[in-house]
Amino acid sequence: MAALPDTAALEDSPLRLRARASDPDGDEVRFSLAHGPAWLSIDPSSGLISGVPDDPDVGVWEVTAEASDGRLTASRTFRVAVRNRPPSFEGVPRRRGRVGIGYQDTLRAHNLDGGSVRLTDGPPGLEMEGTLLRWRPSASGRWSVTVLAQDPHGGEATLSWEVEALPLPFVVVDEVLADPPRGAGGDANGDGRGDGGEDEFIELLNAGPDAAALGGLNLGPEGTSGARLFRFPEGTAVPPGGRFLVFGGGAPGDFPCPVFVAGGRIGRGLSADGGVVLLTDPAGPDTLLRAAFPGRGRGQSWVRRSGSLPSAQEDKKNGPVTQGQDAFVLHGDLPGRDRFSPGRPRLLLIGLSVAAETTMAVGRRRPFKVMGIFNDGVQEIVTERVTIITSDTSVLRTEGDDRLVGVGEGRSSVRARFEEIEGVAEVRVVSRRVIVTRGRPPSEGRQSDSLLSSVGASPVRDTATAGADYRLRTESLPGGQWEVVEGPAWLAVEPETGDLVGSPPGEGIFQVILSGEDSTGQAALVVVTLTARPEAERHERGPPEEGPPGDDGDELAKKIRQRKGEADSDEAAVPSARPSGADPPSQGRPAEGGEIALASNYPNPFNGTTVFRCRSPTPGRAEIYTLLGRCVRRWVEVGAAETSLVWDGRDASGKTLPSGVYFLVFEAEGVRAVRRMTLIR
């Protein structure tokens, strides 16, 4: 039998060597192992010694092989040294994560032999359990990561790589059309023909403060394989507030935002029964956006409900962005909307106002309107899905959606509500009775009028002469007394007669409210609009003109203009103090040359500040009045050349004024221009 040399083997690697022997008599020789480790074996016929040592087999083994012809035996002894195979890593770990989304990866480590893998370097918050890495990045950045693998025999391996945490794009689904109407009416992509697959679209909005990098991200319905998902081209980025569209296919027309086209459908197509839209990062894989939209849109798109941005994005640590079905409404459910509006601004309801008489009588039915205020400044009457209630049904109740009924004396609010948007009007209900007679002293050489005004009817309008005594005769209340609730300081109630008396120090428009109660508890109220003019002008102009709208609202002002043959407009019917024969100032744009004018304010309606532009050859005066004629703000020495006035919705003392209609009156060289505005809180 030939000698066998000492040899070496590597853990987990096969060992092969052959024993050789011969017999002089030509007898058959058989081989066997008389001594050796269990992992080694020998072929009896060929003498091939083979085996694969494992981790426990690391070390030096003595092996004895024998050869026999059945009668005699020969043997040889040799040593096998099994060396340790050190740990190793396979593959490349994840190199990218997203802020606010859990990062997770399992390292593929080999030959640990009961050893361990530990983290030696990495970003804050990165944890390791066995070979599993877990991390939720709280900030964007790039970090180095190093792990060390060690086995019980002293073998070790190191793996290092860089991991990057990218910002989580604050992207939401703003509109989705999954059920385009048939025919030309369903041509959402604007290519001139309707196609159920090509015209479906998803409109996304970057609602975050930073640009959203979308290159390489996938978009499509949940459950769609990666090959069918739409993938944004590399380098795609959307600025803050930007929108972008993904159509199913076709050749989209012009849109005011970036447009992308899928391959005929988005994924396998958006389901008309509703579904879930996912924006994913395949490098994670991470889900960045999950939006569930309802089904059966009846040919309309589903749009994001106003104010429904996910609150989880306020700190960007609780991603992904999630939108439930309750975050969407049908496109046509809000007033002023079409069936769909991809990439275009929509008319959004931003405010409500209730136009109602502030005073009405018990038993009277008076109309009211709920006006919707849209983000383009347009106001329209709205009724659908608007809830209307009164705060005290024993005082006031509604009849239908456009009429109020006075039930009993007192005060009640009328509140209109659409989702989170509200509008309120305060109404006072009083007893129904005649309360005032308008007349003039006989000394003026004019016979007294017998015009009567009832509670809830149009306000009494009268004129006075600046610097002269004025008297408004009233009916005294039996056992009661009139009181001036609001009015200029120079007016008072004469105790003996109950008449309203005083002497206006100068020209102007004054609103006066009188109230009283008789011995039986019957309440009475009257509103007087008083215009004080110079003596000469009073004789030149003749009968008094109507003043601005009072408590009876815009409808009364419109009737006054129609009765006088004036064109209906949004401007207040405020008397102009221009000299006889002078042309009225321009009301729509700044004046040119020596013309006096006041341009429309912008924005209107407004809830922060609004700006007016005025011009006149010489400085003038600008004042802001309430509907009741009370001056709340004044500017003097303005308007020489072109001047911009900014009003912040506060009075002269800095107090915030409530929502309502206000008037800006600009006067210079005896000419007056008026603009009307709506303040919304």
Secondary-structure class: mainly beta
Low-confidence sequence ranges: 312-317, 432-458, 537-593
Please give the CATH architecture of the largest domain.
Sandwich
Query: What is the number of helices?
Result: 2
Broad CATH class of the largest domain: Mainly Beta
Rg, alpha carbons = 45 Å
For the record, give the distance between the C-alpha atoms at the N and C termini, rounded to a whole number.
108 Å
| Major sheet attributes | 6 strands, mixed
As laid out across the biggest beta sheet, the strand order is 24-23-18-17-27-29
Instruction: Tell me the count of domains.
Output: 6
Anisotropy-based shape? rod-shaped
The CATH homologous superfamily of the largest domain is named: Lamin Tail domain
The CATH topology of the largest domain comes to Immunoglobulin-like
Beta-strand content bin = 35-45%
What features would you highlight for this structure?
Immunoglobulin-like; mainly beta; LTD domain-containing protein; calcium ion binding; six-stranded mixed beta sheet; 681 residues; 55 strands; Ig-like_fold; five-stranded mixed beta sheet; 2 helices; Cadg; rod-shaped; Lamin_tail_dom_sf
